[in-house]
Amino acid sequence: MSTFNVPTREEVNTNNQAIFDNLNKALGFVPNLYATYAHSETALENYLNLANAKTSLSSKEKEVVNLAVSEVNQCIYCLSAHTAIGKMNGFTDEQILELRAGNASFDSKFNALAKLAKNITENRGKASQDVIENFFSAGYSKGNLIDAIVLVGDKTISNYVHSTTQIPVDFPVAQPLEASEV
User: Fold this and answer.
1) For residue range 110-149, what is the model confidence (pLDDT) as tens digits?
2) Cβ neighbours for 132, distance < 8 A, ≥ 6 positions apart
3) Residues contacting residue 88 through CB under 8 Å, at least 6 positions apart
4) From the centroid of its chain, how far is CA 105?
5) Cβ neighbours around 110 below 10 Å, total
6) What pTM did the predictor assign?
7) Residue among 77, 67, 88 at smallest CA distance from 181
């Protein structure tokens, strides 16, 4: 298999260099996965526009989806990054493990969203009708459903980029779920 490097600022085009500078200012570093997008002249900007687009979902709800999707897709990079981001959004370690498994016993609305994200991902977009009805019964709208699907797609892109490139994880590595947690 071809080995992917994590490009440095000097190895990317001018547009991506500016994005690297902005990421450094905002985060203090350029995450390896974002840097890997910069192998393309346009993918990093396009991905960040998608990831930062307006949505009806809150930051915590986005993390619910990110964790459930990344677990189904077995992306250690995204699981590690979103475990850290989930903690920044107020989730405990135990809650993060539940969300990764597609559950949220601590919040009925998050539970419906986690189940939806997991179901959509496992079934390649063909969500079960009972999972969709549960999502609506929890208080979500049709607009929220569409936004959740877009977020599943967003996270799947990053999962696939990492799964294909296998670039190093530069976040504290998430531990695997126990079989009983899944």
Assistant:
1) 999 999 999 999 999 999 999 999 999 999 999 999 999 9
2) 116, 145
3) none
4) 21
5) 23
6) 0.94
7) 67
Which pLDDT band holds residue 3 (cuts at 50, 70, 90)?
Answer: confident
User: Three-state SS for 74?
Assistant: coil
Asked if 80 contacts 171 with a C-beta cutoff of 8 angstroms, the reply is yes
Structure tokens given for 104: 């949220």
User: Tens digit of pLDDT for each residue in 66-91?
Assistant: 999 999 999 999 999 999 999 999 99
The tokens for 39 are: 């192998």
Q: Tell me the per-residue pLDDT of 94-103, one tens digit each, with 9 for 90 and over.
A: 999 999 999 9
151 exposure class (CB count in 10 Å sphere: 0-12, 13-18, 19+) = buried
Token couple for 135: 């999502």
Closest by alpha carbon to 137, among 106, 109, 103?
109
Question: Structure tokens of 73?
Answer: 């897709």
Mean pLDDT of the chain: 96
How far apart are alpha carbons 151 and 12 in whole angstroms?
27
